[in-house]
């Protein structure tokens, strides 16, 4: 088959693929646009939610909610009950809450693991620097000790001066 330019369709496709090997392919277009979100802000939100889910306040709120739900749907008149005894709607709500809470908690844990890993690497680098500085200072102190041991001390100088003084006094006494 030949297209409107007079080129065979199969050959043109092969040439187009061969000519564009140095260019990246365009990503395929999605039927629906992808939602754009900031992963950092979403991560912070998930950490706040996970932090709240792990508090006593959440447990008290959930307990009060369940008690109100169960008492309303068992003690209220039959026409006012919206979720009779097997409490299927309550089960659905709790399942949805758990299905959202679990990934948010995992996301918060992953972010905390990443922060811990970064903190560990920084601590390790700081410890390596501290060890290097300590070894340097140890070598400097050892060098100073060696240099000081070669210096004359005050007692050594006194004893040498006394010895020289005795020699001079001895020579004077010997020369009458």
Automatic annotation (TrEMBL):
Keywords: Membrane, Transmembrane, Transmembrane helix
Taxonomic superkingdom: Bacteria
Transmembrane segments: 52-72, 84-107
PANTHER family: INTEGRAL MEMBRANE PROTEIN-RELATED (PTHR41386), MEMBRANE PROTEIN (PTHR41386:SF1)
Name of the molecule in the record: DUF1003 domain-containing protein
Organism: Actinomadura rubrobrunea
Taxon lineage: Bacteria, Bacillati, Actinomycetota, Actinomycetes, Streptosporangiales
